[in-house]
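Changelog note: in this version the structure field was regenerated for every chain. One regenerated record is shown below for reference.
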Amino acid sequence: MNLKRRLFSQKQEERYHYEDEKMILHMTQTLKEWVPANRDVVIVCIGTDRSTGDSLGPLIGSLLEDANLKHIKVYGTLDEPVHAVNLQEKLDIIKERHRRPYIIGIDACLGKVSSVGNIILGEGPVKPGAAVKKQLPDVGEIHVTGVVNVSGFMEYFVLQNTRLNIVMHMAKRISKTFENFDQQIGLNRTITPSPEALTKKWNQFTPVKE
């Protein structure tokens, strides 16, 4: 992070290249620092497999679904994608099902040539549809975006003609990160029980008679 952004912006951002060997370790650590321990964690993977570049989100969602996460709920897979048409409906469902959900928005994005292959973890919501000039609801308290191709000209065409190879590699790395993070959540909850668990234990406590 450069000093200028540190001084003038309150929102933090971390960037990792998917080929970086320590990317999963570093990104997991940042998630541990940013995500509150007392909230339901919900991941919303945005995109569609009708476009190669835009399939990053649902690919990640399907990989996480196969991983059988114990402490994180995932919306948006290849079978049941979250996209422009149903995004608001899915957000409404999430609010009904989860108490104070901490939402992490995941989406593909376009960027500079030098940024292709970067995975960005940042504070604040993801803005789906921005690459193709669509107005859609913001998603998440933090976001993960993958730079799958170059922006600047005919973005819709660029997304359609993005190589699946890079999208697949990025999806595997991001999903592995969240598998690790899910395990960390489980360890933390074992070490530090939730207030509800402590209350239950207290109610079950039987004092020793003198």
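Spot check on this record: Strands lie at 13-17, 41-45, 72-75, 102-111, 118-123, 142-150. Residues 164-191 form the longest helix (28 residues).
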